[in-house]
């Protein structure tokens, strides 16, 4: 679900300003990471399958990315997706521990998703998040595939997990794991907020079957 969109009606001025600031920060982060990697917009487009126009709009804060788009960018730019998160108070940063009040946030206002990083900053083999999905929220309109595995646990509400075009409606207490090479996406088709723990590894698994 790329591009701007407001599914909750008219927002007040402070909310719009906050959303614009989030878009601006994400755009600057994407541009700086691309430049640091020595890549052109065309190079990133070739690596992600996204259009030149979409990447340019993201960098200029003219579009709000979906989780799928950020995952594609993180793979192309060789950084954890957490690099796109809002930075926490530097005084609270620890090497191995993440305190509740020091979580880094990713607010995807157009997609209706808030992602909180539960793992410390920096590269690693595993990423752990808490997802909050507003009614109608989704990871995007297209399926995603990459190496590694994903797993999760539904804390509250309902999450619909699409695996290879098959929908699985998961309720609080349900859990899952699947090879990330399986085409996947997720959404919240209900009118209640959903919360889930989400685990991602980007390494190729030994036996990506099941």
List key phrases describing it.
globular; alpha+beta; 9 strands; six-stranded antiparallel beta sheet; 4 helices; 26% strand
Could you explain how this protein is built, in words?
With 210 residues, the protein is of the alpha+beta class. It has four helices and nine strands; from the N terminus they run ααααβββββββββ. It has helices at 13-36, 41-48, 52-59, 67-77, and strands spanning 104-108, 113-117, 127-133, 149-156, 158-163, 166-171, 175-179, 184-187, 194-201. The strands form two sheets. It has a six-stranded antiparallel β-sheet, with no helix packed on it. It has a three-stranded antiparallel β-sheet with strand order 6-5-8, with no helix packed on it. β5 and β6 form a beta hairpin. It is globular, with a radius of gyration of 17 Å. The two termini are 28 Å apart. Residues 1-17 and 204-210 have low confidence and may be disordered.
Q: Give the integer mean of the pLDDT values.
A: 81
Largest beta sheet, briefly? 6 strands, antiparallel
N-to-C series of helices and strands: HHHHEEEEEEEEE
Q: What is the CA-atom radius of gyration, in angstroms? A: 17 Å
